Amino acid sequence: MPDQIHPAERLLNLVIALVNTSARMTKEQIRRSVAGYADAASDDAFERMFERDKDTLRELGIPILTVTGSGHGDDIGYRIDQEAYALPPIDLTAAELGVLSLAAQFWQDSAARVDTSRAITKLRAVGAAPEATDLVAGLAARVSAGGDAFAPLLDAVQARQAVTFRYRAASNGEVLSRVVEPWKLLARRGGWFVVGRDRDREAPRSFRLSRIEGRVRTVGPRDAFGEPDAAALADVLASWSAGESRVATLAVRPERAEALRARSVDATEQLDLTDAWLARVAADRDVVHVPFTSAWELAEEVVGYGDAVVVLAPQAVRETVLRLLRVAATLDAAGDTHG
Amino acid sequence: MAERASDRLLRMLGMITYLDRHAGVPVAQIAEHFAVTPAQVLSDVDTLWMTGTPGYLPHDLIDFDAASYEQGVVRLTESRGMTRPLRLGTREAVVLVAALRAMAAALGPSLDPERARVLGSALEKLTAATGEAAAAVDVRLAVDGSPVVVAAIGTALQTGHRLRLRYVNAADVTSERDVDPIRLITDDERSYLLGWCYRAGAERLFRLDRVLGAEVLDDLIDPAHTAGARSVEFHPDPTGGLVTLHLTSRGRWVAESVPVEDVRNLADGTFEVDLRVVDQAWLRHLLLQAAGEVLGLRPTSVARDVASVARSALAAYGPFAEQDCS
């Protein structure tokens, strides 16, 4: 095939043509005169190519405007308005631009990565020349991937559009369809959550993205709901904030679990270790008081120490640990274990 | 992997804008600025040189100074009016501002004033330019480790000094090791120090919440140990033993949070993952947490090991293990 023009080159030619056109270009003019479109083998191929290119440009933030001619209704032309896509004046120093390299590594989701890298490319265009000094050397920050649900939910939050998805309840594993007005996406301790108003339950709820099954679909029009009720949002957020710190009492084997010991604090209230059961379990062990905010997180940590660490109190943490241990104790009896 | 046409287009448009503002820039500098190879810059410039307004006669085209170009310096002489920078799309602004905000909140307090100021001013300018309050996304990074430890690591990274760490590993064994620090990694779940460990003779990731003490030594770091290190990602260690887990669909987080070699989705919605595991203690901890989602496990020795650890832990609870049933 002679002289196939690279799609990026065709797109660039299209942008330059539509920016420079005095009023507008019709589709036919574009096909005839913009380098790259002559490659289209048929009318259909050209239509598909042009539609795809328009989508690509819109996605990049370079919207093509449709201009209707004064004559007939089907006399449609196109142009690009530079004012509409221009970045407001921003003046980034080399050091500030360097900070953006931190942001480039931040997201693990491919969709968010694409968005970040596009944003950075756009900002580099107006940034000062790089300097040798790297202010952020030695630092890296990142957030875990939100999965397939992340991008559509983010779009829906922005558009204030309700969404529906199938969600697996943590309590009983039941999968139900939910309709939610999404307010905000939160990343906390390795998990992504969307908080919003559950329409069926008529109340604020939060949903873990990893428990969403299948696709997230939008329902109804954009701008379908207003600002989230500040008090309701604050309530939901409070449940994800560090929360009130409590202190667990652990019985630790001598010279074990130094990482837990390093976080230990003085006891605020003493357990009654004369209690027969507690005394029996804590015998020959050090009693250590460790602050925690999430019973579930502490339980997952403690379970890793096996019999070196026993939770004396609170009961909720102890029960969570015991539940995990009971299941794990049956692992060697699991059905299809073979090999 | 071939670059997406849209990404290349964006960069080429960015280059016109950039070159319009900077008269005559060496190819190597453009490459560094846009984070691509010099060869890619040459290819982009060659393409730009052929684009322009319909007609595509010499005066219609984007043009560069040919004499400079032969000297390896790119000087834009005709931009065809393409010098306006592109605004950030809504989602682009959201993800960028949310990232910077999370980093400013988590890292800011442990940064020296100069670096904290730069991070703050970058965030401020972007928020102003994009009008994005980033209310849509809120990421909280985990700041682990005692302030004393974090401060010592920060000093060592900045001044290029070796560290002596007191570290307790996943097997709950405490040791002292000298480490050339490479990078402090903060994510939403934990903080880590990536460093070259003299004891292991290799790069290691240290969880900050397991660093019991950190002392900045007088020795300088060995540049050979930190130069090539770029891998922040976890990768399966090819030297580890192969472990295969058969998990329920709810165990998806296992495949998402640990380095897996292979994931096979099965017809009934369950799936299998292959892990390469060097650290048995780590594997044991993972399985104790995930046991509820495990349908099967190979080799069986691993299943026996984990189950017996769980049974002896249950025994340690004595009467409580029999009582607290729910």
Quaternary structure annotation: heterodimer
CATH class of the largest domain in chain B: Mainly Beta
Strand count, sense and closure of the main sheet of chain A? 5 strands, antiparallel
Structure classification of chain B: alpha+beta
The percent range for strand residues of chain A is 15-25%
Biggest interface in this structure? Answer: A-B, 129 and 134 residues
How are strands sequenced across the largest beta sheet of chain B?
Answer: 9-8-7-6-10
CATH topology of the largest domain in chain B: SH3 type barrels
Number of domains of chain B: 4
Distance between the termini of chain A: 55 Å
Helix content estimate of chain A: 25-40%
Mean pLDDT of chain B: 87
The count of DSSP E runs of length 2 or more, i.e. the number of strands of chain B, is: 14
Q: At CATH's second level, what is the architecture of the largest domain in chain B?
A: Roll
Unreliable stretches of chain B (pLDDT < 50, length at least 5) are: none
Number of domains of chain A: 4
Radius of gyration of chain A: 29 Å
Could you please describe the fold and organization of this structure?
The complex is a heterodimer of chains A (339) and B (326). The longest helix of chain A is centred in the first third of the chain and has 17 residues. Chain A has 4 domains: 79 residues, Arc Repressor Mutant, subunit A (Orthogonal Bundle); 54 residues, no CATH class; 78 residues, no CATH class; 83 residues, no CATH class. The radius of gyration of chain A is 29 Å and the shape is elongated. Chain A is an alpha+beta fold. A 5-stranded antiparallel sheet of chain A has the order 8-7-6-5-9. In chain A, strands 1-3-2 form a 3-stranded antiparallel sheet. In chain A, strands 11-10-12 form a 3-stranded antiparallel sheet, sandwiched between helices. By secondary structure, chain B is of the alpha+beta class. Helices cover 41% and strands 25% of the residues of chain B. A 5-stranded antiparallel sheet of chain B has the order 9-8-7-6-10, covered by helices on one side. A 4-stranded antiparallel sheet of chain B has the order 12-13-11-14, with helices on one face. The longest helix of chain B is centred in the N-terminal third of the chain and has 18 residues. Chain B is elongated and about 90 Å long. Chain B starts with a helix and ends with a helix.
